[in-house]
Design goal:
With 809 residues, this protein is an alpha+beta fold. Among the domains are: 1-156, Agglutinin, subunit A; 449-491; 498-594, Phosphorylase Kinase, domain 1 (2-Layer Sandwich); 601-804, Transferase(Phosphotransferase) domain 1 (Transferase(Phosphotransferase), domain 1), CATH 1.10.510.10. The chain is 17% helix and 26% strand. It has 14 helices and 48 strands. It has a six-stranded mixed β-sheet, sandwiched between helices. β36 (450-451) and β37 (459-461) form a beta hairpin. The radius of gyration is 33 Å and the shape is elongated. The structure holds 2-acetamido-2-deoxy-beta-D-glucopyranose (NAG) (10 copies). One 2-acetamido-2-deoxy-beta-D-glucopyranose binds at residues 258, 279-281. It is an enzyme of class 2 (transferase). Its main location: membrane. This is Receptor-like serine/threonine-protein kinase.
Length: 809
């Protein structure tokens, strides 16, 4: 949360791009002026956009906003640090566009006018002969007839004090709204005339003060008291009786000789000393936190009015190294705007209706050590946690209850003053809408059309009827899919899941995951979605986890992402890798899975030792069961879109577990326009319909499963190993040829165990051939695949998969 150093990367890029554009087009901008004389102007684009101090440490001039490079603030900033840091700004509430101008007029007034010529800012003095930006970062207006300056920026601070600057009694700092938005923010630091130095939360937009959250407790010490940041880098509050209170208790450990320094009232309300080593030349240079006040802002702010340190319905945590606070949303809540977290969180679900009895559609999720004090509307004593939950669940007004040692406090929205602290001892129970992963009845196992109750998408799942009529020995049912593309439909509670406890997933902070993975040190692998790291949960270091860092920029809003991930988290099946939790903090999007100790099917199949036939058949059946579950048994069907051996993991007992299901949706670009670049899946496993103008259905997974089944049977890769060789072996054709010639022994490479079971080998090969049919409707459903693999139904002779066109070579 460091004001300058933690800006999202994208904003740095915006800034960088803007700077590049400026410096390339107008290379003369860095020309050194130290005096702005009458008649001189600065403009946002050219010829002179800023003006450096003699040492180059500071610059004064127009600066494009990180959030919108077409808007500019007139500012003073550290020019040599990376990132640069703005320390003063004139028009934070009113950024100007190209065409604006700063001028020291002939009558000695400094004036910022916008593109229409209206004055936006002026220090309100005249008769200045020149203006100068000093090496301290102080901009001064000087009259030749006077020895002292007419005006100085050090006397009109915004959110930052620099060494050499003093905050006199009666003046104040005001935080900006966010790191990127220079408008007036939610906090102020006031050197009061009564001698007290005080931090206040402010009511926006009016700006009146709420109850203070920190002070030096020196009221009555007199109006001569002042906050001094002296030239050698000591920041202290100096009382009239010459007592100095060292604000950050640094005892002068940072000297201005070695460090650039600034003390900034950050947008989160923390008064922070930032230091930046001047000499470290190795790219390690960054703004570091040298001290903060208060150290416990999460629990400090507690007011009857206002949201607290974080926005409404969110909660504050400060467990990082620098103790800077972070704001998080409760489970199933998302930030209204993740770039403006102070606006708070909203539930991802529709609130419980009071009109209808929706008790069964809601459940309570635990959030330990979390509280929103002061907004209780009901209080019970001598109750159990289950009673406390029930009292809230059955009360349509109740959004959250806090359970603490037999006491139960009901709360309604909006929640304020949220915090998570180890010392609380209680538990928040958050009311959330339940999904229902497992409550739909099993689809009939035969050949009936199954209709899914699903608002957005309706899939009619047809199955392959196996009979003995006609040339192909089968009856075909068309598969109709409407608007389903590697996704599942809209999830809204359909049925009660009251008995399903523990199905909810945990929200992790990025810090927790960083710790859990020891700084992302042990990489397990990388896939189409990002890199995967091994970690362990702090509570139980023997519980291993796999943390997947999603590295593509997702188009989803925070809320969509959270919704999707929560839906995925509700899917449990013994052949699926379970999602345990996730993290969604700004640019950080991570998924936390169970750790699978025995690697992937890919390494098993294509490793040095050929796995046993018996084990391979078990794995094939396990994968098929997992796919049936995804396609037919979840509350909303999921098409995996990337079935391949890398995505099948093996647990302690070598049970096959499908990973990465549900992710295709997260990375979708545009579902209605499918181009070659929109193809999901992996070469060698993708169904031909991806390249045609036909709907994508669950049958794409059946195709990939078929290819993989052949790989499991043959322990050979779908595309032959001879890279660059003209004779690239396509496993599907090769296998069909041997199958037709009755040379199953060559398919399994004389695997004795398999040859002892040759009828099963043949059955598996035939099922695979059905699965890789070019026409989706010829492929069986996964349900049917299982029945055939298990021998429950006979498998008719498959047609040549290549005869229906286009397999992917
Ligand atoms: C700026 O102006 C002042 C006053 O006229 C003068 O003393 C000083 O030398 C000037 N500095 C530069 C770099 O021109
Ligand atoms: C200020 O920073 C800009 C951009 O980083 C750079 O181009 C320029 O040379 C710097 N000015 C001085 C005087 O160092
Ligand atoms: C920052 O300081 C300048 C100069 O005192 C003042 O005009 C401005 O209103 C302050 N705040 C913002 C948000 O620009
Ligand atoms: C500016 O200078 C003029 C002439 O020297 C003088 O009459 C006027 O009072 C001055 N104004 C201010 C605000 O000092
Ligand atoms: C100075 O004033 C403060 C507050 O009024 C008081 O706590 C402190 O003891 C005084 N120090 C001296 C040296 O008198
Ligand atoms: C700044 O303050 C510290 C602590 O009071 C003092 O030791 C140091 O001499 C001061 N530096 C200057 C330049 O006044
Ligand atoms: C930078 O300054 C620090 C503190 O003065 C010193 O310990 C360190 O050796 C210096 N490093 C370099 C690269 O000069
Ligand atoms: C609402 O439904 C639940 C469970 O179905 C039931 O226990 C409860 O009594 C009902 N409440 C009302 C007010 O009907
Ligand atoms: C709460 O329970 C304790 C122990 O069961 C009992 O002694 C106490 O009287 C109860 N308090 C109330 C207010 O019911
Ligand atoms: C499979 O996992 C078990 C349990 O963690 C472990 O003991 C075994 O060595 C693993 N086998 C392989 C081949 O990795």
């Amino acid at each position: 949360m460091a004001t300058a150093s933690a800006l999202p990367l994208s904003h740095h890029l915006v800034r960088l791009a803007a700077l590049l554009a400026l410096t390339q087009a107008f290379p003369a901008t860095a020309e050194t002026y130290t005096n702005l004389t009458q008649g001189t102007t600065l403009t946002p684009l050219r010829p002179t956009t800023f003006w450096p101090s003699p040492s180059g440490d500071f610059a004064f001039g127009f600066r494009p906003l990180d959030s919108d490079a077409s808007l500019f603030v007139l500012a003073i900033w550290f020019n040599l640090t990376s990132p640069q840091a703005v320390v003063w700004f004139a028009n934070g509430d009113n950024p100007v566009q190209a065409g604006s101008k700063l001028e020291l007029t002939s009558d000695g007034q400094l004036s910022l006018t916008d593109q229409s010529g209206n004055e936006v800012w002026s220090p309100g003095v005249s008769n200045a002969t020149y203006a100068a930006l000093l090496d301290s970062g102080n901009l001064i207006l000087v009259s030749s007839s006077s020895s002292s300056s007419l005006w100085q920026s050090f006397a009109s601070p915004n959110d930052t004090l620099l060494p050499g600057q003093t905050l006199l009694a009666g003046s104040s700092l005001r935080s900006r709204l966010t790191d990127l938005d220079y408008s007036e923010g939610r906090f102020s630091l006031v050197a009061q005339n009564d001698g007290n130095l005080v931090l206040y939360p402010l009511a926006l937009p009016a700006g009146n003060q709420y109850k203070l959250y920190w002070s030096t407790n020196t009221a009555g010490s007199g109006s001569g008291s002042r906050l001094v940041f002296n030239e050698s880098g000591s920041l202290y509050y100096s009382l009239t009786n010459d007592t100095q209170i060292d604000i950050f208790s640094t005892g002068g450990s940072y000297s201005t000789k070695d460090f650039y320094q600034r003390a900034t009232l950050d947008p989160d309300g923390v008064f922070t000393l930032y230091v930046y080593p001047k000499n470290a030349s190795n790219g390690q240079q960054k703004w570091q936190v040298g001290g903060i006040k208060p150290t416990d802002i999460c629990t400090r702010i507690m007011n009857d009015y206002g949201s607290g340190s974080c926005g409404y319905n969110s909660y504050c945590v400060s467990n990082g190294d620098d103790q800077k606070p972070d704001c998080l949303c409760p489970p199933d809540y998302s930030f209204i705007d993740s770039t403006r977290k102070y606006l708070g969180c909203m539930p991802n679900f529709e609130p419980q209706s009071c009109e209808h009895n929706e008790t069964d559609l809601f459940d309570l999720e635990m959030l330990d050590e979390t509280d929103w004090p002061l907004s209780d509307y009901e209080h019970y004593i001598n109750v159990s946690i289950d009673q406390c939950k029930d009292y809230c669940r059955t009360d349509c007004m109740c959004a959250v209850t806090i359970f603490n040692s037999g006491q139960c406090y009901k709360k309604k929205l909006p929640l304020s003053n949220g915090r998570q602290t180890g010392s609380f001892g209680g538990t928040a129970l958050i009311k959330v809408a339940t999904g229902n992963a497992n409550s739909l009845p099993q689809p009939p196992s035969s050949t009936v059309t199954v209709e899914k109750k699903d608002r957005k998408s309706l899939i009619l799942v047809g199955s392959l009827l196996l009979g003995s009529s006609g040339l192909l020995n089968m009856v075909l049912l068309a598969v109709i899919s409407v608007n389903v593309l590697c996704r599942y439909g809209n999830r809204r509670p359909i049925k009660p899941v009251s008995s399903m406890s523990g199905m909810n997933i945990r929200v992790f902070t990025h810090r927790e995951l960083e710790q859990a993975t020891n700084g992302f040190s042990e990489e397990l692998g990388s896939g189409s979605f990002g890199r995967v790291f091994k970690g362990s949960l702090a509570l139980d270091s023997r519980t291993w986890i796999a943390v997947k860092k999603l590295d593509r920029l997702l188009h989803d809003s925070d809320k969509e992402f959270t919704n999707e991930v929560r839906s995925i988290g509700q899917i449990h099946h013994k052949n699926l890798v379970r999602l345990l939790g996730f993290c969604n903090e700004g640019v950080h999007r991570l998924l936390v899975y169970e750790y699978m100790s025995n690697g992937s099917l890919k390494s098993l199949l294509f490793g040095s030792e050929r796995p046993q036939w018996n084990q391979r058949t078990k794995i094939a059946l396990g994968i098929a069961r997992g796919l049936v579950y995804l396609h037919e048994e979840c509350s909303a069907p999921i098409i995996h879109c990337d079935i391949k051996p890398e995505n099948i993991l093996l647990d302690d007992n070598f049970v096959a577990r499908i990973s990465d299901f549900g992710l295709a949706k997260l990375l979708r670009t545009d579902q209605s326009h499918r181009t070659n670049t929109g193809i999901r899946g992996t070469r060698g496993y993708v169904a031909p319909e991806w390249f045609k103008n036909v709907p994508i259905t669950a049958k794409v997974d059946v195709y990939s499963f078929g290819v993989m089944l052949l790989e499991i049977i043959c322990c050979r890769k779908s595309l032959g190993r001879g890279v660059g060789n003209e004779e690239v072996m396509v496993l599907t054709y090769w296998a069909y040829d041997y199958y037709r010639e009755g040379r199953l022994d060559l398919l399994v490479e004389n695997d004795e165990e398999a040859m002892a079971d040759v009828s099963v080998v043949e059955r598996f090969v035939m099922v695979a051939m059905w699965c890789i049919q070019g026409e989706p409707f010829l492929r069986p459903s996964m349900q049917k695949v299982i029945q055939m693999l298990e021998g429950a139904v006979a498998v008719p002779a498959p047609p040549d998969p290549s005869s229906y066109g286009s397999s992917i070579r």
